[in-house]
Specification:
- The chain has 101 residues and is an alpha+beta fold.
- Strands 2-3-4-7 form a 4-stranded antiparallel β-sheet, covered by helices on one side. The chain has a 3-stranded antiparallel β-sheet with strand order 1-6-5, with no helix packed on it.
- A hairpin with a 2-residue loop joins strand 5 and strand 6.
- The longest helix is centred in the C-terminal third of the chain and has 16 residues.
- It is globular.
Length: 101
């Protein structure tokens, strides 16, 4: 992967990527959105046909910053039209809360 590093020795059941900071240029991000009710900002990032959900992000200096522990594979790029913004909001919030505990 270009920005996220897969976690081989998981400490938590839900851990997919290493808890390392990443920086992704804004032009590589598909969507940035603030949750409609909560203060969670999330993004969708596409790499090689796979879409990744990035939660607990910040945007500055033309980049998206976050921590790999709050990211997960979401769907294939050809399946993205099957997800509404409401579904995406719910999934992003639930994934964020899984790690915020």
């Amino acid at each position: 992967m270009k920005y996220l590093i897969k976690e081989e020795n998981r400490v938590q059941m839900y851990q997919v990527f290493k808890y390392l900071k990443y920086e992704i240029p804004l032009q590589e991000i598909m969507l940035i959105k603030k949750h409609n009710k909560e203060s969670v900002i999330y993004a969708l990032y596409n790499e090689e046909g796979n879409v990744y959900l990035l939660t607990d992000i910040s945007v500055r200096n033309e980049c998206v910053y976050g921590n790999g522990g709050f990211a997960k594979p979401y769907c294939k790029i050809e399946e993205i039209d099957d997800y509404s913004l409401k579904t995406l909001d719910s999934d992003a919030y639930n994934w964020y809360m899984t790690h915020a505990k």
